[in-house]
Amino acid sequence: MYEQEAHSLLNTILDDLEPDICRRDLRHFYTRLGANFYAIYTLFNRLYGQREDFEQQLGRLVEVAARQYIARSAELRAIDQQRERDHEWFLGQQWVGMAMYLNGFANDLDGLARHLPYLQELGVNMVHVLPIMECPAGASDGGYAVNDFRNIMASAGTMDKLREVAATLRKRDILLTLDVVLNHTSNEHEWARRARAGEKQYQDYYYLYDDRTVPDMFEETMPEVFPQTAPGNFTYDERINKWVMTVFNEYQWDLNYSNPAVLIEMLDIILYWANQGADILRLDAVAFLWKKIGTTCQNEQEAHIILQLLKDCCQVTAPGVLFIAEAIVAPTEIIKYFGEDAVIAKECEIAYNASLMALLWDAVATKNARLLNRGILSLPDKLDRATWLNYIRCHDDIGLGFDDADIRAVGYDPHAHRQFLVDYYTGAWDHSPARGQVFGFNAKTGDARISGSLASLAGLQDAIERDDEPAIASCIELILTLHGLLMSFGGIPLLYYGDEVGTLNNDAFMLDADKAKDSRWLNRPTYDWSRVARRRERGTVEQRIFDGIKRLIAVRKSMSAFADFNNRELIAVSNDHLFVFTRNSLSGAREHVLVVTNFNDQPQPLDLGDLRNRHHFSMGRLQDAISGESPAQAGDTLMIPPYRHYWLVAAA
Ligand code: GLC
C-alpha cells in the first residue's frame, strides 16, 4: 500500500543507509520492502511510536533486513524466488516431517548426514532438529536456554558443518527446520552477563526490578509454567541484587520486547538462521512474548504484532522461509497465530495443532470420539496459505488444553475428566495399560500434564512386558491409526523420532541430576540403532510399526485430496466411537476420501445413511487405500474393526 507519510520516511531511511549497502544490487529487496513497508511502519509505530528515537529504530530495522539480504547466498535467493512463484508450495501432501534431538537420533550433524537414507527410506522429507544452539553445560531446558544465538554446541558440530548438512538436505529435497528461542535467553548469555555487570543497555533487554513491588503485581495474574520445578515467575539474582523475570526456569531470563533493540536483535537472529539454510524456523513459546501487568502475559495483542513484524521483515529478506508458531494454548487462541482479520497467513504459516493432539489422546483413553468430534467442530477455520503441524507426541508434555465448554457439551465435568485422563495415562487408573508420568503438577490449581513416549502411553510397553501378543497387535494397530490421522487430517504430519519403531519410555534421565526432576526426558530417547535394524526382521514390533508408517506416508503422498486447502468436512455419525471426515480434492484429478477411525476395542458399525448426500461414498463398493481391503458390509452398514483407520475411496 502507498501511503505518503510512510513512503517519505522510507525514502529518508534509504537515503541514510551506509554507502556499502547502497552500492549493492538490492532490486528484489527494494520491491519487497516497498510492498511491506507500510505494514512494517504501522506495526512498529503501534509498539514503539511514542519513543523519541522511533525513526532511528525503524531505520535500524531496515538496515538489519538489508544487511541480511546482502548476506543471503545466491542459491537461497533463487529458492526464495521459486517459492514466491509457487507460493502454496508447503500445502502439498508430499511433506512429512520428523522432530528429533540431534544427540539422541544420531549423536551429531555428521551422524544426521549418515542417517538421511534412513529418513528417506521411511519417507520423511522435513527434519526438525530440536535446539542445538550453544547452551549451558548443566541444565538447559533441553537446549531452550541459549547462551549464543549464532553458534551451535560443539558436540553437534561446527557452523560450517551445519551449512554443509543444510546443503546436503537441499540436494535430497528435505526441508530443514530449526528452533529460534525468541522469548528468553539463558542467564549465561552475553546480554545477561553484561546486564549483571551493570550495563544499562543490556539491563534494558530484560525485566529487572530492585524489589518485589512490580513482580508481585505481575504474579497476581500470571500462571506458572513449571510449577513443580520453577514456581513463580521471578528469580532473585544476588549478584545484581535484583529480581529477574523468569517465566520458565530460573536460568531462563525473559526478553523485554517493549525495548525495540530486542526485537531488532531477534529479527537479525531469525534472518541469520534463514541464511544458514533453514527452510522453516520454529518460533518457540510465542504466546509469551509480551508482558503486561493485570494479564496472564500470554496471547497479548502485542505478541501478535511482534510476529507480524518479524514475518513482514522476513518476507522482504528471505520470503522462502516459513515460520512455525509454537503456541500451546487454548484452541481459539492457537489459530490467531496465523494472523487475525486476514485472508492469508500474516504471522506464522504453520502452527502446532495442540488441540488435535490432546483430543486424540482423549479419544484413546475414553475409547470414543465424543470430545474429539466436538473439539474439531469448534475449531475455527484457518486462513488460506496456512497449515497445521499435526503431531501426536513431541519432546514436551501433553497438556490437556481442551475447551471446558466442549467438555461439558459432551457430558463430562471438566475437572473430573482431566483428572481421569491424567490418572489413565500415568497408570493410576486401575484398568489402564498406559505408563506415563505426571508433569508440571500444580498444587494450587490441581492441574497436571503428562509425559511419556507414544508407545508406552498407548499400552505397548505393558503388553510387551506381559508378553501378550493380542495386546501387542492391538497397540500396534492403535499407533498406526494415530499416525494415519496425522497423515490425513490436513496439514504437515510431524512424526516424533523413535515412534516409527515403537520406542518405549527412556528412564535413564532419572540418573542425571540435571534432568531427573523433568519427566519430559521420558520421551526424549537415544537411538539404539541395533534395535532400529530389527525393522528388517519380519514380525518384530519395529518392523510392523515402521512398515505400517512407511506405507501410510507413501499412500499419503500419492493422494491429492490430502493436500491442505481447507478441504476437510467432518461428518456427524450416529456411532460415538467413530471419527469420520471426508477429504476432497476438487482441482485436477478429483479425489474423494472418506477417513474413518474406530477408537473402540470392539468392532463398530458405520451407518452409510450418515453419509447422506455424499454420493461419492454411498454408491458402489468402498476400498481402503492403505490396505487395499474393503470393509465388511451388511446392507447399509460397514463394520469397522477395533482401532482401525481407513482411507476409503470408491473401488475401481
Ligand atoms: C517450548 C519448548 C519447551 C521449552 C519451552 C521454554 O515450549 O517446546 O521444551 O521448555 O518452550 O523454552
CATH superfamily of the largest domain: Glycosidases
* Overall structural domain count: 2
Q: Helix count, per DSSP?
A: 25
Which strands sit side by side, in order, in the main sheet? 1-2-5-11-12-13-14-17
Give the helix level as a range of percent: 25-40%
What proportion of the residues form beta strands (DSSP E)? 15-25%
Bound molecules: alpha-D-glucopyranose
What fold name goes in the CATH topology slot of the largest domain? TIM Barrel
Average pLDDT value?
96
**CATH class descriptor name of the largest domain:** Alpha Beta
Structural class: alpha/beta
- Straight-line distance between termini: 51 Å
Radius of gyration: 25 Å
What are the segments in which pLDDT stays under 50 over at least 5 consecutive residues? none
Number of strands: 25
Q: For the report, how would you describe the main beta sheet?
A: 8 strands, parallel, barrel
CATH architecture of the largest domain: Alpha-Beta Barrel
Shape category: globular
Task: Explain what you see.
The chain is α/β, with parallel strands linked by helices and 652 residues long. It has two domains: 89-186 and 256-560, TIM Barrel (Alpha-Beta Barrel), CATH 3.20.20.80; 562-650, Golgi alpha-mannosidase II (Immunoglobulin-like, Sandwich). 38% of the residues lie in helices and 16% in strands. It is built from 25 helices and 25 strands. An eight-stranded parallel beta barrel has the order 1-2-5-11-12-13-14-17, surrounded by four helices. A five-stranded antiparallel beta sheet has the order 18-19-20-25-22. Strands 7-9-8 form a three-stranded antiparallel beta sheet, covered by helices on one side. Helix 14 links the parallel strand 11 (280-283) and strand 12. The protein is globular and about 75 Å long. The mean pLDDT is 96. The structure holds alpha-D-glucopyranose. Alpha-D-glucopyranose (GLC) binds next to loops.
